[in-house]
Amino acid sequence: MKAHCETISIRTRGKGSYEITDKVARIVAESGVRTGLATIFMQHTSASLVIYENADPSAREDLHRYFEKLVPEDDPDWVHTLEGPDDTTSHLRMALTAHERDGAGARGAAWPWAPGRGSLSSSIAAPRTRDAWS
């Protein structure tokens, strides 16, 4: 069984989603693996991975609005603010999504293996560089 691992660095401008489909597809293609499982692992507790609708930008906007309603940053009940006022919010949003995503592929099909789907790194905190393994 062949295994391949590479680090993807994702520079963020703060809270939002960042398209990483092309980076993951490049790694899968260059790995030489034609049939197998691709795993992406986010190494942070204030960022997550989402496979989501990507053909229409309004879908991503809805995703952002949903999380703003579900886990608002200005909730006075949040007590974990060691790294800033978005600390609890960042961790809760990550817990509701995922830090790891898997996708099975066959016959050299490219990630994410379906039209209109995209791999998004969702940064839930202040601007910084995020690392993910693929």
Q: Would you give an account of this structure?
A:
The structure is a single chain. This protein is an alpha+beta fold and 134 residues long. It has helices at residues 21-31, 57-70, 87-96; strands spanning 7-11, 16-19, 36-42, 47-53, 100-105, 117-123, 129-133. Strands 1-7-3-5 form a 4-stranded antiparallel sheet, covered by helices on one side. The chain is elongated, with a radius of gyration of 16 Å. The relative contact order is 0.36. The mean pLDDT is 81.
Unreliable stretches: none
Q: How would you classify the helix and strand content by structural class? A: alpha+beta
What about the largest sheet? 4 strands, antiparallel
Indicate the overall shape. elongated
Distance between the termini: 16 Å
- DSSP summary, beta strand count: 7
Q: What portion of residues belong to β-strands?
A: 25-35%
Helix percentage range: 25-40%
Task: Work out the helix count.
Answer: 3
C-alpha-based Rg, rounded = 16 Å
Order of helices and strands: EEHEEHHEEE
Give the mean pLDDT. Answer: 81
Relevant terms:
single chain, 134 residues, alpha+beta, four-stranded antiparallel sheet, three-stranded antiparallel sheet
What's the short version?
The chain is of the alpha+beta class. It is built from three helices and seven strands, in the order E-E-H-E-E-H-H-E-E-E.
Describe the secondary-structure layout.
Blueprint: E1 7-11, E2 16-19, H1 21-31, E3 36-42, E4 47-53, H2 57-70, H3 87-96, E5 100-105, E6 117-123, E7 129-133
Antiparallel strand pairs: 1-7, 2-6, 3-5, 3-7, 4-6
